[in-house]
Every structure is written in structure tokens, then in C-alpha cells.
Amino acid sequence: MDVPAKYNPAEVEDKWYQYWLKNRFFHSEPNDRPSYCIVIPPPNVTGVLHMGHMLNNTIQDVLVRRARMQGYNACWVPGTDHASIATEAKVVERLRAQGIEKKSISRDEFLKYAWEWKEEHGGIILKQLEKLGASCDWDRATFTMDPKYSESVIRVFVDLYKKDLIYRGVRMVNWDPKAKTAISDEEVIYKEVQSKLYYLRYMIEGEDSYVVIATTRPETILGDTAVCVNPSDPRYQHLKGKRVLVPLINRPVPVIMDDYVDMEFGTGVLKITPAHDVNDYVLGDKYNLPTIDIFNDDGTLNEDAQLYVGMDRFAVRKQIEHDLQNAGLLDKVEDYINKVGFSERTDVAIEPKLSMQWFIKMKELSEPALEAVMEDDVLLFPPKFKNTYRHWMENIKDWCISRQLWWGHRIPAWYMLDGEFVVAENEHDALHLAREKSGLSDLQLSDLRQDEDCLDTWFSSWLWPISVFDPELPGSEEAEPNDDFSYYYPTTDLVTAPEILFFWVARMIIAGYEWAGGYPFRNVYLTGIVRDKQGRKMSKSLGNSPDPIKLMEQYSADGVRMGMLLSSPAGNDILFDESLCEQGRNFNNKIWNAFRLVKSWTVDKEKEQPLYAEQAVEWFNTKLNKTIEELNDDFEKYRLSEALMRVYKLFWDEFSSWYLELVKPPYGEAVDSKTYLATLILFDELLRLLHPFMPFITEEIWHYLVERKENESIMVSRMPRAEEYDEAVLTNGERMKELITGIRNIRKERNIPQKDTLELFINGEHPAEIDSMVAKLANLEKITPSEEKPANASSFLIGTIEYHIPLGDMLNVEEELKKLSEELKYLQGFLVSVRKKLSNEKFLSGAPEHVVAVERQKQADAESKIKTLEERIAELGNL
RNA sequence: GGGAGUAUAGCUCAGCUGGUUCAGAGCAUCUGCCUUACAAGCAGAGGGUCCAUGGUUCGAAUCCGUGUACUCCCACCA
């Protein structure tokens, strides 16, 4: 087989992905081997791959490929999330572009369009994952609105309702006026905004005086039903029992007294708008105030506002400022920075709004999940998230799960004509229950009306690790869990972003204990957030996020994978820099060229293996074993970037720069077969170690390396295991490198070409085993252990051993003296500090014995080196 | 307002139970090299007040206190 001079990733990567698919290497089914399982954090079905996905899925692929090669029955379950709000928003937008308004069509018609959209766009992100090399078991791909999956969602709702953990009620919720739905507290993002504080005059009823009230939202005065002062505020005692007039509309509202009011803030008077502020709502409740909701669902003002009806809330704010000014009711306006909640999905300002919603009581439900993490049944990486998790779980609030949307799982509640409702898994059961409840045995389905709302997307995602295997909710019923569930659950690792620790991770753990009999995964690896070089979060609006597909075209998928991994210590944010992908591409190139070198050798079967080659093989094999051991440790701690860096250095520095240079046959000569075979084996092992990180190039080369059968693949080969190794071999190897470096430096200083042979005289206890390797790399004619020190030689010390290279006339005595004296000076200073330490009584009595011994050894070595150097300097001086 | 985290080379980060892995790695930079796998390369080199300041200790990048700067999470005073 001819090896192309250039590596062509685009072609190669596609080829092998198809090969893997064809041979069903990604597929897993329960068997008698131990399982290793990851469920993907399902991306939004309408989503497009971004850098966060890249990071996340690269990590998952590395873990699952490694596990597979370690002999686990590895399964990575892919899928997509229906993402209620985001998808519905896109469908609405598309319809609008076609001139169709959502409210002009029926629910069924809308859903038809939505499913069309899903069919068109739903596959995109999964196709993109293929480019990355994701070894997902595509046969198991699940969508959170698959019929089976939906059944499990509804089943859970009914179960919770039966357990009295779901209730319906009017509460203040976060209203998204763009998506026109309630959202949960977790979906609100608070941002600091530059706003204004308006000081408004409220006339006191029947008097010619007024009080001034500061507010950031003057448009909400139309919904005011009281003003409030602190009872101990001396400035406002005269207001007790009086009423004030809401500006512009002159509605009289009472003055109430409550110490909730902060006397320091603004003017110390607070306007109360129970329908549009959470705190006001609480006060309104306490004092039995009426609530006036002045907003429509889309954030425009309604009839109850009396003024500005139909105008948008922000337009009203401008207008009312103007009108108040004209009416002489605006005292002043100040600049003010406050925090405003924005919708995570639509990025519009949240409107607190009273409405009828469904909630889950979370307190009791969450207790086992809190314990699971506290007791380390579920491990978080990095562990600092344990604290955050605990804090949230201990202060958990009820979860608003209803959304005023059509795209999603419809709430399985049916209302009767009298407003009473029943909750059931289907219409049939609902009718049965309704007849029972109402006592009307002739009640018909047409007498029932199903709740219009959908469930929060996360209400389905929290079942993900359970329902992808068994939609029957194995833990909650008598029913036997199916084979998939019994085998794969609990899964092994979960890899996700810390942003969704509460949205998703915590709730999955809760669901696991409630419906699957235990935790859903053993380890949670929380990745960082991908930021750009300036530390800004990558976002569409900033345009600072590279397109992963383009990156892969430019640097290869393997290259981009490497770029992602090199910058990804768990939990820390990632400052993504394209140059890391470049490093990945360069590494591809390095691997390819190293391979080309080996493949270019001609093999001479008659040739004896030179000693240096035999030793090189032994040395690198030892190095390999030690590295494997270290890699195991890295993976246990999920230190993936360190693991990759370790293999990178092993391949580039140890293998290419040292090993290959050592065993490379001299120009024009053939390699002996023993060395050649050994090199192929070592190369093979390196490829396997590299495979989880760089699956494509390793597969390509693996097939060139030796002839493979039709259905063989490196991805199902065995990961090399650490064998016992001899530390002494490694120590000698390091000595060999130091010696070579010393000799190279002398060559360089004196401009001696590599082809000129040199001689080496050694004074001291030098390990002669390495001589053969040293001679090969340094082009030495002979190596002579010698008490005698050759004249006209340049010399250097390694440890306490002195090495001399005779240079004859080429020796520059002056420079040599300078070099040696500098080293001497350093050693003398060093010796002083060591002696000082050793003459300190407290050190001798306080420090452990081995530390003292080490210091003594340092002292002896330094003394010996100094003696050697002094002698050498004297000799040179005599020349 | 409450909590957590981070601060080490130009950049990104290691540095575990205080002591030979103690000041490290990769990248970048600089200096030589188109040397018969690779210039996307090879061989070398330089580069640090370990944020500041007190303390504990024979000994501190490491432990403790204080301060400063940044980041994140939670709460939400109009």
C-alpha cells in the first residue's frame, strides 16, 4: 500500500465514519460484559451545532471511545429535545413570514406546521455531530416527543398528581410577553440595565399637597391600588388613614403602613401594584388590596389601564413620562442602575404577572437527590459544584411547569362544565374519572375540555436517562423493568454545562429517585463555558462564535477535537483560541509524517538488530507503560486536557524526536526486521492511546500499518494496559538524553557538523548501558571511561559525572573557562544555602529524617561537583 | 445583600497530604538550521516580586488572617 505524502482529512474522516456506521460499531445491546453508558444532553431539535456542543460532545466521545476500547459494553445514547419555547417561536416566526398569524389557525393546524419544521430541521444537529466523529448509538436516537417518550411524561404527571405533588393555582409568575407564556424562575436571567428612577407626585385626597414616590416603572401606576410607608417614618405620620390619587387617572387609593418599606430608598414611599410586582403582590395579599392587571399577554396595555390602551409597555413608559411632565406631576428623573429579569429564551424583559398555572411541590421530592450528592452517591466534577448544588436544593421552590404553548406535551387535565377537573393519562380514563367525580354517568367526551397548556420542556428532559431506556417508569410501578433499563441504568457519566445544573442535572437526579429507584448517573462532569479570547461568552449576537463545521473543514475534525480538549479543564471557563485547532492540525501532520518514515523503511531480514535499537525499544516500551499508568490516573480524575497533553508529548517528543531518531537506519541502509516489527507494535499502541482523542487519523494509519480484515477497526481494539516496568530504564533514558543534549550544545557552540565524529571521555560512574544509544545519536567514534582528563577538551557535568569532548585546536579556552566558572559560582552559592540549612539545629531536629538526608546528599554532590570543576579550571589554566 | 471560585512566564493553565517532580507544561517569542518523515518541521535559548500584606513553621506558591482585583451562582429595594 502506498502512503500518500499528504494527509487528507476531509476524505479520510468521511470514509471512516461511514465504515463505522456500516459495521455498527456504535451499536450496543445488553450482554454479559460490564456496561459503560452516557446519555447525551439532548440538543434543541431546531438547534445548530455551536462551540459548546463541540466541547461537550468531544468529551463524551473521548470517554465513550476509551471505555469501549477498555472492554466495556459502551453505549452513548443520542437524541434531541423538543424545546417548547424556542421551537414554537421559530415556527411562529416562519408562519408570520408566510403571512399566517398563530392565533388565526387551530392548535392542530399549528402542530402540523411544527412537525413539518421538526422533520426538516430536526436532523441537522445530529448530522453535524457525525462530522465530529461522535460514536453515538444512532439506533437509540430519541426525541422527547416520540410517542413512547410522551407517554412516560404524561404518566409522570399523573403520578405526581396522584401523590398530591402537583397543584394548580393563581400565582405571580414570570411572564414572557414575546413567547406569551409563563416561565420558571430558572429561566429568568437578571441583567443590570441603565434605567431611570422617576419621582412622581401623588396628590393627597382633599388636600392641596402631595407625596413624592420614586419608581422605575411609571407605566404601572395605572395598576396601583395603594401606597405604602414605613410606620416608623416620622416624615409621613400625617398620611395615616388618608388616601392619595393615582396621577393622571386620579383614582383614590389608600395609604397603608408596613415596615417592609425601606425608609432610605427613594422618598420612603412605595407604590403598590399587586398585579405587576412580586413584593407588591405579597403586600396586596396581606392588606386585602384589589389587583388591577393592566397588561395584555403581549405586554400591551388593556382596558383596565384606562389610558394608553393597546400601546406597548415601553412606549407607554416614554409617553407617560411626557404626560406626567405636562400635568406637573413629575418631580424629577434620576439615572439609575437596576436589575431586570429577562427571558432566557426570547431575551425580552419579564413581566411579573398573576395567572393560573400548574406547579410541582419540590421540597419533599428533592430530598433524596440532595442526599445523593452530599453522600457522594453521585459525584460532581469539579467538586466545588457540590456547594452550589446543596444551596439550591435546600432553598428549592415550587416549580411552575405549565407553559402557554402548543408545541410540547399537553397537560393531561380535563375540565368539566362546572370548572372541576380530572387528571388522567388519556381521554378514556379522563371520561371515566369525570363521570365518577361529577356523578353524571352520561357525561360525554365532548363535555370535557382538555387544558390548553403544555408542560415545561424540562418536565420531559428530567426523565431522559430513564425514558430513553424504559418509558414505563420502572421504579414507580410493579411492572418489570425492561432489559435495556436493567442493564444500562444507572448510566456512568454525564457531561454537561454547569449552566443547566439546576434546570436539568438536579431534576434528573430527583426523577431518578422518584421513578427509577435510584440515581441516574454516577459521575457528572461539568464542562466550562466556551468564551472567546477576550473572555466574552460566545453568542450569536456578538458574532464571536466560530462555525464548528467551518473549523472542522479547515483544521480537520481531529484537529478541532484536540483544540477543544486542550483548553478544557473541568469547570473552568474555556477561552477558545483557534490556534489550538491549528496545534491539532499540526499534530495530525506530525503523526502522519512519523508514520511515513516508518513505512518508508526497507527491511533486511538478514540484518542483526543493533544494540542501540534493542535498547531504544526497551526504553520506549518502558516509557509507554509509565505513560499508560499516568493516563489511567488522569482519566480517573477526568483531567482530559492533561491526558491529551501527555499522549501528545509521548508521541511528539519521546517517540518522534528520540525513539525514531534512535532506531532510524543510517542513510541508505535497511532496518533489521526485529526493530521494524517492534516499531510497528509501538506505533500501534500509540495509535490506540490516541484514538479516543483523534479517532479518524488513528483509524486511517492503523489500517495502513498492517493488513486488516474487512470488519476490523481500531475503535473496537483493546486499549493498551500498563505493564510492570523498570524505573532504572527510564533513569538511564533521561541520562542518555541529557548527554546527547550536552554533546549537541558543544557541537553547536563550536559549529561542528553532525557528520564529523567526536570522542567522549567519561570521568565518573557513568551507566555504560546507554553508550550504544549515545554513540548512535551523537555520532561518536568512541566512548572512553577514563581517569585521565584529556587536554583541549570541552566538558560538562551531569550529576557528578564529568564528560569531556576533545576538540584539539578548536577549543576556545577562554570561553570554556568562562562557562565553567559560571557554573562554579552558582554551585558555590547553592552550597552555602544547603550548609546553612544543615547547620540549623531546629531544621535538624524538626524536619523528617528523609528530608535531612536529601539535604546532606545535596551537600555532598555540590561539594564533589565543585571539586571537579575547580580541578578542571586549574587544568585549563595550565594550558 | 448571601455564597462560591480564581489570581503562578507574553497567553492558556499544572503544581495532590507544607520539604528533589519546586518554581513547571503547552503555545507564543528569540537564535541557528530547506539535515536523506515532517519549515504545519529540527536543534537550542531567554522569560516569574508565585496579586499585596501580616502570621504559623526549622521550612510557605502551598496552611491561616486581612486587603485588592476579576469571575460565577443565588436573592431581588421600588
Features:
879 residues, seven-stranded mixed β-sheet, elongated
What does this structure look like?
The protein is an alpha/beta fold and 879 residues long. It is built from 27 helices and 31 strands. Strands 7, 8, 9, 10, 11, 12 and 13 form a 7-stranded mixed beta sheet that branches. Strands 6-5-14-16 form a 4-stranded antiparallel beta sheet. β5 (166-176) and β6 (181-183) form a beta hairpin. α19 (611-636) runs parallel beside α21 and α23 runs parallel beside α24. The longest helix has 30 residues, at 849-878. The radius of gyration is 37 Å and the shape is elongated. The two termini are 61 Å apart. The model has no long low-confidence stretch (mean pLDDT 91).
Instruction: State the major sheet.
Output: 7 strands, mixed
Please bin the fraction of helical residues: 40-55%
Based on secondary structure, the structural category is alpha/beta
State the assembly state of the protein chains: single chain
Quote the distance from N terminus to C terminus: 61 Å
Mean pLDDT: 91
Q: Name the overall outline.
A: elongated
Low-confidence stretches: none
Report the radius of gyration as a whole number of Å.
37 Å
User: If helices are DSSP runs of H or I spanning 4 or more residues, what is the number of helices?
Assistant: 27
Secondary structure tally: strands: 31
SSE arrangement:
Blueprint: H1 9-22, E1 35-39, H2 51-69, E2 73-77, E3 79-80, H3 84-97, H4 107-121, H5 124-132, E4 142-143, H6 147-162, E5 166-176, E6 181-183, E7 188-204, E8 210-215, E9 226-229, E10 243-245, E11 252-257, E12 269-272, H7 278-286, H8 313-326, E13 330-343, E14 351-360, H9 363-374, E15 379-381, H10 385-394, E16 399-400, E17 402-403, E18 413-415, E19 421-423, H11 427-438, E20 449-450, E21 454-455, H12 457-461, H13 464-467, H14 483-488, E22 491-496, H15 501-515, E23 521-526, E24 530-531, H16 548-555, H17 557-566, E25 574-575, H18 578-600, E26 603-604, H19 611-636, H20 640-663, E27 671-672, H21 673-690, H22 695-705, H23 727-750, E28 758-763, H24 771-778, E29 780-785, E30 793-798, E31 801-806, H25 813-838, H26 841-846, H27 849-878
Parallel strand pairs: 1-2, 3-4, 9-11, 15-23, 22-23, 24-25, 26-27, 28-29
Antiparallel strand pairs: 5-6, 5-14, 7-8, 7-10, 7-13, 9-12, 10-11, 14-16, 17-21, 18-19, 18-20, 28-31, 30-31
Helix pairs in contact: 1-22, 3-4, 9-10, 9-15, 16-17, 17-18, 18-20, 19-20, 19-21, 19-23, 19-24, 20-21, 21-22, 23-24, 25-27
The structure holds one RNA strand of 78 nucleotides.
